[in-house]
Amino acid sequence: MLMRFCIVPVVLAFFAAAPGCAPNFYFAGYAYGGAEVDSPLLGYQVAVEVSALGIREAADTNGWAFGLIPLMPCGWQAFKSPESLMHSYRKVRHSQWRDKTEPDDAEVYYPYELGLDLAETIQYDLKSSNLFRDVRFAYEGKYCAYGEKDVERYYPAVLFSIEVAEMTWYRYPTFYGVSMAGAIGWVIGLPVSYGTCRLVLEVEAVDVKHDETLWEKEYVAEPICVEWIYSNWGAGKSWCAALKQIMTEMRGDLVENIPEFERKMAEFEREAEKESEEESEDDW
Asked: Which of the residue ranges 98-112, 195-209, 229-243 has the most confident prediction, judged by mean pLDDT?
């Protein structure tokens, strides 16, 4: 009987060493904010473009004698490309992303794309803010919006270029040893891991017509992430919390800076007209 009781923590420890399966989308549970203003502050179309593959360090690491699991009471992991933990393919049903040749009730699988997941979430959040006349995100040569038809002809005055500078899940699995006390910890449902989810986004607003920067800022969020043995496996809720913190701060910054956008755009236009006039005089 004692032997059987001690086997329980050994088996569960191996499951704890690997993160649980993530949802089909990291940001599927994201809580969108409401309108910031009654009418748009910037009467132009804007677009969102997210790069998730550029400057990030993508190497995942394990530490603290992971080879001795479950003899070690805890471990340390850093997932610098957490999308690798996502299902190899995301399941889509009744989605605008499905293959149009498939029947409406078909379950279709597509490779998970972090940049697309983020872009769609940020686009809809900015649109919900009512700060702009219209917001879409750029994807494969088209401009898209959640729940709306994709379009190729869309002329944004401002492009929000967003770089995922860091997206790291710092995870500390807990194993509680192989003793009877450790087994009790598993049975009563203690956490299988602690940690944080660090998300760093570099945001640049660009005047599309003149290819000039209107505003830029780096945003950092690092909420805690606790996985319980009976619930909340994976880091989806914490990634949603991180993005929510960033978007809440970004909304406030945009309310403050949008008037400056218009001033700079007008200034860039005057400078372009002046340069054009000078070139015409030189040609004459």
From this structure: 195-209
Residues 258, 264, 267, 271, CA torsion sign: negative
Q: Rounded to an integer, what distance in angstroms lies between the CA atom of residue 58 and that of residue 238?
A: 19
In a domain, 125, yes or no: yes
Asked if the structure places residue 134 within a domain, the reply is yes
Question: pTM here?
Answer: 0.79
Lookup: tokens for 177: 């040893």
**How far apart (Å, rounded) are the C-alpha atoms in residues 230 and 44?**
48
269: its two tokens: 């236009």
Tally the domains of the chain: 1
Confidence of residue 283 (pLDDT cuts 50, 70, 90): low
Question: Is 134 exposed, middle or buried (CB count within 10 Å of its CB: 0-12, 13-18, 19+)?
Answer: middle
Residue 108 lies in a domain: no
Asked if residue 215 belongs to a domain, the reply is yes
- Residue 229 is given by DSSP the state T
